[in-house]
Structure formats: structure tokens, C-alpha cells
Specification:
single chain, mainly alpha, 1 helix, 0% strand, rod-shaped
Length: 46
């Protein structure tokens, strides 16, 4: 492979890894918010 394609592949892999970390963080945040909403909802409806 040429050096240019190696650099492009490395840059693409780094971008994908960064995006994956953002997605995981968002999923975690959404799960925490849903858990808090469930706790509040169950507490109010006792």
C-alpha cells in the first residue's frame, strides 16, 4: 500500500474510535437519565 492510503486508514480508524467513545458515553448518559426518571416515577406513584 502507498503511504497515503496507510495514513488515510490510520486517520479513519482514529476518527471511528473517537466516535465510538462518544456513542458509548451518550448511551451511558441516556441510561442514567432513564434510571433516574424511573426512580422518580416510582417514588411519586407509591
Amino acid at each position: 500500500m502507498s503511504e497515503r492510503s496507510k495514513l488515510n486508514r490510520k486517520a479513519r480508524e482514529e476518527r471511528q474510535e473517537k466516535q465510538a467513545k462518544h456513542v458509548i458515553a451518550w448511551i451511558g448518559a441516556v441510561l442514567i437519565v432513564l434510571a433516574l426518571a424511573y426512580v422518580v416515577w416510582t417514588t411519586v406513584n407509591i
